[in-house]
Specification:
Alpha-D-Glucose-1,6-Bisphosphate, Chain A, domain 4, alpha+beta
């Protein structure tokens, strides 16, 4: 791991299967992140959608699901508009922790594309905001 990898760890009072569904089910993804164009499936492209200023659909993030080991591990390529199409990698690891789940995100690949530090900080802050929503949605499930 290089020093430009974003790493986040969260704990949930829910099973890995419940948390997994919020990472891979298009309807659940939309409750805390951005609505997906389809359920995430290994080997398939995905797009997480939002709205442009004029209200038209807009891709917010996109990539390909590289690996799925339900409900333990999800690896996906990932880009957003400011990356100008350069792909990074997001790895999700779900582990049982007591009666709940420990979720660890590693967002890597920034050094390979020479991403500016300001973009890294913006993505780090963005993950924090999305994870606040994820905590709420999982607790309501």
């Amino acid at each position: 791991m290089d020093n430009q990898t974003i790493t986040k760890t969260l704990f949930f009072n829910a099973s890995r299967e419940v948390v997994w569904a919020f990472l891979t089910d298009k309807n659940k993804l939309g409750t805390w992140f951005h609505p997906a164009d389809r359920n995430l499936r290994e080997g398939q492209d995905y797009a997480l959608m939002g709205k442009a200023d004029d209200g038209s659909p807009k891709k917010m993030c996109w990539g390909t699901v590289i690996q799925m080991e339900p409900p333990s591990k999800l690896v996906q390529s990932f880009t957003v508009g400011p990356l100008s199409g350069a792909m990074t990698t997001v790895t999700w690891n779900l582990e049982q922790a007591g009666d709940g789940t420990r979720l660890t995100l590693e967002h890597s690949g920034f050094a390979e594309i020479a991403a500016p530090f300001g973009l890294l900080m913006a993505l780090d802050k963005g993950w924090d905001a999305h994870f606040a929503s994820l905590r709420t949605r999982v607790s309501e499930a």
